[in-house]
Design goal:
By secondary structure, this protein is an alpha+beta fold. Helix content is 48%, strand content 15%. Strands 15, 16, 17, 18, 19, 20, 23 and 24 form an eight-stranded mixed sheet that branches. It has a six-stranded mixed sheet with strand order 6-7-8-3-9-10, sandwiched between helices. It has a four-stranded antiparallel sheet with strand order 2-1-4-5, covered by helices on one side. Helix 32 packs antiparallel against helix 33. The longest helix is centred in the C-terminal third of the chain and has 45 residues.
Length: 883
């Protein structure tokens, strides 16, 4: 069954070579009890280790059932130890943190035996050695004899062909030694038992064969087994099963080991978690502040949309010219001189203000937007359109005592500053283009159509959100106050107080204290206003022309009485969680439905119809619009003119006689001198604008509201794509949000890079520390490594055990780190809130927590790779000798 042929074993220590075995040749029967006797250092244990596959011979051959082992690889020796050999050691070599049952069934786990089968066979073999009632004890709870029985049971569990015992009774008393020897003798009836001993009496009493060694040579064999007999017994059936330790077994071994050192395991995991805690706190603060920034950005975007106006210009270029960015121009370089020169920027700036104003075709762009295939809807939370049709709102029962215009606001005029408005008219085109983001004195503003966004920004204090075009909302501030400016504008305070206040202050007096007004919610919900169409403020005259009657009190009262009544349906206030809002306190918010109603209904008014029906005639003067050319006699039908004069009865007979003698040109000049043939100084477009004409298909501005900055960037790309598709209708606009926040982005990026650097340092420190801790564990578990290798565990299995340990430590470290971070975040958030009044800034996102735990596990695995490789490479013979 087992043959050793000329086995030589050399040990190298430096330059010196020690020969432990010097050509040993011996054959063993399939079942016999062989005792190997000899003095210390004669090679007994070395021979036993070579037979057991723990150590490899230098030369010669070990033959198992006729199969040579010369070409055996490490994995073949692992299978041989697991399937064919069982070891019984003098020092028992049990794994202390495993129970008796687990120690015994460990070899079966390497063979891939199921859990139920392992338990069954382990209990049977423990019953066989008399320990059936001790299966749940730990080795340190048992006597020496009991532990040796456990070792024998472990050796027998895989039903090996060979049982190797190295001084099995060396640490036992006489009575226990006899029990162990009787047990080995019984086993030898079916198996080959090879025992190394110093006790010749025990060998003589129990062995069937005694082999004596001296200085690495066999000097005596009491019952030799010839090669011929070996050949007859050899059946050539050696085919061991491959061994493989499951991950569950590796985890079980590692977890049990760690649980025997709970305090140290906790401290190790906590030390490993320090880096994770640092990273988690950084992540908590960065993600918390990022969430805060995102919330601010999102609501800021709701306040500052991407706005495209009918008239636009590139303000980045204008601003560049305003600050005189001509430093790179060599013609302006006077740095080497001792004089200071004036720089010419006003000319360029004025040219930009006038010539760089572009007309955007918003009709085409609106159609492009409304085509969902282009993706604008996907990246916007709301799209609103505004029109040039003014919103005329009146209060029939104002504090002034009668009808008061509420919108457009007349408050500045009431204060005596009305001239400001006229001054602006001369630069209408430029100011209309420059008006982005600037709020006028008007307190009425169009609301978003996105109800969800509105409800996120505002809380309803009383009433309900508008459901119809004739319902509006009133915004109060966080203190439930409305400014007196709003009250004057809405006609809730007498504007005479303003005039008196201005007079007093201009005279050098102090501003008088006004009595504070108090309104209930019901008072505010009872407020009603009248919306009058721009065209309804004009009266048709007998000659067919129209006159603006907005300054006529009686006419205005009648027009207001026939206007559309709107009422306040809700009193709202900015939510505590809102960082930016679309409507400021004191504003009245109306729906897009009302805006569209005014545009469409105004087109139906008489004055607008008359102007559209007579595009060449000014409906306010009855005169034709000037085409820019000087009127001549050839442009006038003089016969028709003369006939009209005759029919009017204004021309006497003498005048008729005089006119009859005049040429056509002379007659034209005479009538022109009397005021005939005058042209209107206005244009058709001027009149249509004055009357508030607009088409729903042609908005004055388009506001694109985005929820995130990423969406804004996508909108910018879509606009650029539109400009590529329609190069002749290119849209000009300025990205104000991008300009405002470009520096903020740089700061955020810089902070992010610093945090990443801290994180990287923490990760490196954690990895090094885990590697050191794992290496210490390898040193402590060296004997366990030897035990596992002796029962057939491969190098990969040993690596798996320590990788499992680092996995557990990493998982535990990660969980501790996340738990501690969650607890620390509570006071950190409170402290930050007390300073900046922002709640929940330090909050670890759950995804971040999961990722950090995974990172902790990965880092510990990486940190433990080198120690686990070192463990796998340990010589099992040397490992078994360590204590």
């Amino acid at each position: 069954m087992l043959q050793l042929k000329n086995i030589v074993k050399d040990y190298h220590t430096g330059d010196e070579v020690v020969q432990a075995l010097k050509g040993i040749s011996v054959n063993f029967r399939r079942n016999e009890f062989v005792s190997i006797l000899g003095q210390s250092g004669c090679g007994k244990t070395t021979l036993l280790n070579i037979v057991g596959g723990l150590d490899q011979y230098t030369s010669g051959d070990l033959i198992i059932n006729g199969k040579s082992t010369k070409d055996f690889k490490s994995r073949d020796w692992d299978s041989y130890r697991n399937n064919s050999v069982g070891f019984v050691f003098q020092s028992y070599n049990l794994i202390p943190h495993q129970s008796v049952l687990s120690n015994v069934e460990l070899a079966l786990t390497l063979s891939g035996v199921s859990k139920a089968e392992r338990r069954k066979r382990a209990k049977e073999v423990l019953e066989k050695v008399g320990l059936g009632n001790q299966i749940h004890k730990k080795p340190n709870q048992m006597s020496g004899g009991q532990m040796q029985r456990v070792a024998i049971a472990r050796a027998l569990i895989n039903d090996p062909d060979i049982l190797l015992a190295d001084e099995p009774t060396g640490a036992l008393d006489t009575e226990t030694s006899v029990q162990i020897m009787e047990l080995l003798k019984e086993i030898a009836k079916d198996k080959l038992v090879i025992m190394v001993t110093h006790n010749p009496e025990l060998a003589q009493q129990y062995s069937t064969r005694i082999v004596k060694l001296l200085d690495g040579n066999i000097i005596d064999d009491s019952n030799p087994f010839s090669d011929e007999d070996e050949a007859k017994e050899d059946d050539g059936s050696y085919a061991p099963r491959k061994t493989s330790m499951s991950m569950f077994t590796a985890f079980s071994l590692s977890l049990n080991n760690l649980m025997t050192k709970k305090g140290r395991t906790f401290l190790t995991a906590f030390a490993g978690s320090i880096g994770i805690i640092g990273i988690a706190l950084i992540l908590s603060l960065s993600s918390g502040f990022q969430k805060y920034i995102n919330d601010v950005q999102e609501e800021t975007l709701a306040t500052y949309p991407v706005q495209i106006t009918k008239k636009a210009m590139d303000y980045s270029e204008l601003l560049s010219k305003m600050v005189g960015n001509n430093e790179e121009d060599s013609n302006h370089n006077h740095a080497g001189e001792d004089k200071v020169y004036s720089g010419d920027i006003m000319g360029d700036m004025l040219v930009s203000m006038v010539s760089d104003v572009k007309e955007n075709d918003l009709e085409t762009f609106k159609k492009y937007i409304e085509d969902d295939a282009n993706g604008f809807t996907k990246y916007t939370s709301d799209i609103t359109y505004t029109y040039d049709t003014p919103l005329y709102v009146f209060n029939e029962n104002s504090a002034n005592g009668g009808v008061a215009q509420v919108n457009p606001s007349t408050t500045m005029t009431d204060m005596g500053f009305g001239g400001m408005a006229e001054a602006q008219e001369s630069t209408a085109d430029f100011m209309s283009a420059f008006s982005y983001g600037s709020s006028s004195m008007d307190m009425w503003t169009q609301m978003l159509d996105n109800d969800t966004l509105l409800k996120q920004q505002y809380d309803v204090l009383a009433g309900h959100w508008p459901e119809n075009k004739n319902e509006v909302v009133l915004v109060v501030d966080k203190n439930n106050e409305i400014s007196d400016f709003t009250l004057y504008t809405l006609g809730l305070r007498d504007s005479k107080e303003l005039k008196d206040m201005v007079s007093t202050i201009l005279a050098g007096g102090e501003a008088p204290e006004l009595e504070q007004m108090v309104f209930t919610y019901d008072d505010l919900l009872d407020l009603k206003f009248k919306v009058v169409l721009p065209g309804d403020l004009y009266k048709k005259n007998a000659d067919g022309t129209y006159t603006d009657m907005s300054s006529d009190a009686d006419f205005l009262k009648s027009a207001v009485a026939g206007g559309l009544e709107v009422k306040v349906s809700a009193v709202i206030r900015a939510s505590d969680k809102a960082y930016a809002t679309t409507m400021q306190p004191g504003y009245i918010g109306y729906t897009s439905e009302l805006a569209n109603y005014i545009v469409s209904e105004n087109e139906k008014t008489d004055v607008l119809k008359a102007q559209m029906d007579n595009p060449d005639t000014d409906v306010f003067t009855g005169m034709p619009f000037s085409d820019g050319k000087e009127l001549t006699a050839d442009d006038v039908d003089m016969d028709s003119v003369m006939q009209q004069l005759m029919d009017s009865g204004q021309v006497t007979e003498d005048m008729q006689a005089q006119m009859a003698s005049m040429t056509k040109e002379q007659l034209f000049e005479m009538l022109k001198g009397y005021g005939f043939f005058q042209e209107s100084t206005s244009t058709y477009e001027d009149n249509m604008s004055k009357l508030g004409y607009a088409e729903l298909a042609k908005p004055a501005s388009i506001n694109l509201y985005c929820a995130e900055f990423a969406d804004k960037d996508e909108i910018t790309k879509l606009i650029d794509k539109y400009n590529e598709d329609y190069p002749d209708k290119e849209i000009t606009y300025t990205d104000y949000i991008g300009i405002m926040l470009s520096s903020v982005t740089k700061i955020i990026n810089a902070i992010t890079y610093v945090l990443i650097a801290f994180v990287a340092i923490s990760l490196i420190v954690s990895s090094i520390m885990i590697g050191i801790i794992t290496y210490i564990s390898v040193l402590e578990r060296t004997k366990e490594i030897g035990i596992l290798r002796s029962i057939g565990a491969s190098k990969k299995d040993i690596s798996r055990v320590f990788n499992a340990e680092t996995f557990i430590i990493g998982l535990f470290s990660g969980l501790i780190g996340i738990g501690v971070t969650v607890l620390i975040n509570i006071p950190i958030s409170k402290v930050i809130e007390s300073y900046i009044n922002v709640a929940g800034v330090s909050a670890l996102p759950w995804k971040g927590g999961v990722i950090l735990v995974i990172i902790s596990v990965i880092l510990t695995l990486i940190g433990g790779l080198i120690p686990s490789r070192l463990a796998a490479k340990k010589d099992p013979v040397i490992a078994l000798r360590s204590e």
